[in-house]
């Protein structure tokens, strides 16, 4: 009996001594896997950084900065997450519910996207013109919202700030804007006739940043617009990714400094007598891609003496479809016309 009890105690003690050993072995195994994983990840990052170093060195740079390194690693992590999400999306599509959800989302997006954003260029002291436009075709309050929701047409008056910031002109516009909620006020632009080309550039850039529309239009505040005819015409150009629509003209270049329409860069225009083809500034429309182009390149796009010439110059070297549309010629009113000067 004594011998048997001794053997039992020895067996129990041996069993207890094996448990810490087993735990230690498991811990060391997990630690080895973790360290190996980290080393593999670090080695992958080093390989990628070496490749990036070779690429940047080939571009004339001598080393990768700390910021660049962090950006590279962050990009790799984002790429991994994106790959995982793509796999989940593929699996969801196979189960048959993702496609219907995506279709529903696309339908909602298409309903919310405006057909066109119209910038009505106005100036200080033109309240009567603005009120006439509100009464004739733009509307106010619920009528303005109805035009946006039902027809996909957004219309806003566009104006800058006074050279004397905060004066009575600025205050008057602020009050009118609060009353009607139909202004785009370009706070960083000084309102002046000679600054109109820059105003045009800022409007298209601002509108493209705020609204995800199919088209963007510029119109003067002394022009009547047939909204239905405009919408119908623009719908026929939805298949053109880069389109510039207007009443195309050339116009004379004036080199005399004392002339009202003097062009300081007159010598740049071919025969020095006429501009290249461009849309009349009374009313013209550009597609979303062109508005985005202006937004991205606003700091380097050149402006000339006239806003319509400046806009035409931005597209002259691009793969853009120029549409000479007689309905956009506002000087003459005819059946189906889109605009008329008043």
Offer a quick outline of the entry:
The chain is built from 10 helices and 9 strands. It has 342 residues and is α/β, with parallel strands linked by helices.
Question: How is this structure best described in words?
Answer:
With 342 residues, this protein is an alpha/beta fold. It has ten helices and nine strands. It has a seven-stranded mixed beta sheet, sandwiched between helices. α6 links the parallel β2 (153-161) and β3. The radius of gyration is 33 Å and the shape is elongated. The relative contact order is 0.09. Residues 97-110 have low confidence and may be disordered.
Keywords for this structure?
single chain, 53% helix, elongated
- Pattern of helices and strands: HHHEHHEHEHEEHEEHHEE
**Average pLDDT value?**
78
Largest sheet features:
7 strands, mixed
- Share in β-strands: 15-25%
Helix content: 40-55%
What is the spatial order of strands in the main beta sheet?
A: 3-2-1-4-7-6-8
Q: What distance separates the N and C termini?
A: 122 Å
Q: How many strands?
A: 9
Number of helices: 10
Q: Which helices and strands occur, and which strands form pairs?
A:
Blueprint: H1 2-58, H2 66-95, H3 98-112, E1 116-121, H4 127-138, H5 141-151, E2 153-161, H6 168-180, E3 183-190, H7 196-210, E4 215-220, E5 223-225, H8 227-235, E6 243-249, E7 278-287, H9 288-296, H10 307-315, E8 321-324, E9 339-341
Parallel strand pairs: 1-2, 1-4, 2-3, 6-8
Antiparallel strand pairs: 4-7, 5-9, 6-7
């Amino acid at each position: 009996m004594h011998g048997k009890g001794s053997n039992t105690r020895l067996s129990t003690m041996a069993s207890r001594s094996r448990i810490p050993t087993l735990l230690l072995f498991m811990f060391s195994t997990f630690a080895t896997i973790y360290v190996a994983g980290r080393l593999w990840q670090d080695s992958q990052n080093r390989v990628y950084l070496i490749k990036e170093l070779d690429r940047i060195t080939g571009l004339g740079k001598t080393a990768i900065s700390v910021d660049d390194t962090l950006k590279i690693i962050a990009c790799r992590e984002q790429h991994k997450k994106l790959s995982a999400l793509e796999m989940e999306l593929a699996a969801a599509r196979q189960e048959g519910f993702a496609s219907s959800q995506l279709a529903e989302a696309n339908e909602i997006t298409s309903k919310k996207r405006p057909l066109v954003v119209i910038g009505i260029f106005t100036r200080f002291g033109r309240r009567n013109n603005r009120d006439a436009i509100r009464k004739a075709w733009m509307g106010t309050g619920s009528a303005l919202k109805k035009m946006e929701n039902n027809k996909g047409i957004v219309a806003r008056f566009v104006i800058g700030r006074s050279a004397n910031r905060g004066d009575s002109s600025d205050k008057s516009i602020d009050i009118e804007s609060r009353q009607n909620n139909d202004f785009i006020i370009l706070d960083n632009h000084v309102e002046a006739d000679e600054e109109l080309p820059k105003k045009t550039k800022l409007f298209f850039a601002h509108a493209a940043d705020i609204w995800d529309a199919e088209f963007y239009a510029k119109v003067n505040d002394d022009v009547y617009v047939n909204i239905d005819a405009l919408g119908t015409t623009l719908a026929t150009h939805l298949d053109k990714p880069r389109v510039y629509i207007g009443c195309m003209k050339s116009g004379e270049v004036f080199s005399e400094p004392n002339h009202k329409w003097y062009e300081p860069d007159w010598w740049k225009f071919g025969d020095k007598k006429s501009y290249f083809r461009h849309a009349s500034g009374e009313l013209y429309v550009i597609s979303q891609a062109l508005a985005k182009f202006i937004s991205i390149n606003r700091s380097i796009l050149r402006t000339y003496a006239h806003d319509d010439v400046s806009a035409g110059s931005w597209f002259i070297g691009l793969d853009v479809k120029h549409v000479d549309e007689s309905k956009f010629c506002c000087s003459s009113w005819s059946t189906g016309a889109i605009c008329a000067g008043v």
